[in-house]
Specification:
2 copies of one chain form a homodimer. Chain A has 131 residues and is mostly helical. Helix content of chain A is 50%, strand content 6%. The first copy, chain A, has a two-stranded antiparallel ribbon. In chain A, α1 packs across α4 and α4 crosses α6. Chain A is built from 6 helices and 2 strands. The first copy, chain A, has a single domain, classed as Arc Repressor Mutant, subunit A. Chains A and B meet through α1 and α6 of A and α1 and α6 of B. Chain A binds a DNA duplex (30 and 30 nucleotides) through α3.
DNA sequence: CTACCAACCTACTGTGTCAATAGGTTTTTA
DNA sequence: TAAAAACCTATTGACACAGTAGGTTGGTAG
């Protein structure tokens, strides 16, 4: 299940795209328009900057701004960054690939097929498609 | 992310199908073969009986048994029963359909499309496909 | 008829994540 | 130099997950 981190991140991106004016947009405005706690958004937006989705500027006149064109943001990239992983099961989300049952597991192929489906779905959509 | 409830349920079903012999199969055997805590499986299997996936029999010679042919168990039904819902977001999982932003929401169509994809994927597979 | 086996039932617990909240510090510009 | 904004650290309450523990009921084999 997609959490508020992923969903709010998407809403922030959409809000930034819709209110784009060349300048930085303060989080206060976004929080008010989207009716989300500004304090909570700070945490989320910080990770978005760290993940290369946005650029931020401190000080008066500061705020946040998209750093690519909307069509260059795959939805999958945004969700993967915020949710950690889009994998359906723990043994595929883990980097170490270490499930001891992996060779005998009768369900693993299904999870792998499912993960590909999910990945392809979200990477075939971009921020532009949501506007 | 699919939890142990859904994954263990699937493994129990597969185990029952593979070891089918006309008789009831005690949970103890399943737990040993699958290397899962019997106590924890009790909770899971109880819900599977309540959900109409299995029949259980008490007393000596008792245990559990599939009550349909493997091809008549859609994987989606099993997962939906155990996970509560396969919906990607809270506003679609909720029965009351009450998100106040629903008309203006720019992401809802994507979640709906995604939910259909997931549903179709898991309902197109049956227990038979996992054997 | 009774001992055993197995399902069934209720309650509890430790761990971790989610969704925030609170309060401060630094940075920038008007 | 004062305001505005991002940035940083810490804390919290609620809840779900993944079990554990111990007892009760029910059916069957000897």
């Amino acid at each position: 299940m997609i959490s508020t981190r992923g969903r709010y991140a998407l809403r922030v991106m959409i809000d930034l795209a819709q209110n784009e004016n060349g300048k930085y947009i303060p989080l206060k405005d976004i929080a008010e328009r989207q009716d989300i706690s500004k304090k909570y958004l700070e945490i989320i937006v910080k990770d978005m900057v760290a993940g290369g989705l946005l650029t931020g500027a401190s000080g008066k006149g500061g705020g946040y701004k998209l750093c690519r064109k909307p069509e260059d943001y795959p939805v999958g990239e945004i969700l993967e960054l915020m949710e950690g992983s889009l994998s359906s099961v723990a043994c595929l989300a883990a980097k170490d690939n270490s499930c001891p049952r992996k060779n005998a597991c009768r369900t693993l192929p299904m999870w792998e097929e499912y993960d590909r489906l999910v990945h392809d779905f979200f990477y075939s959509k971009t921020l532009r498609d949501l506007l």
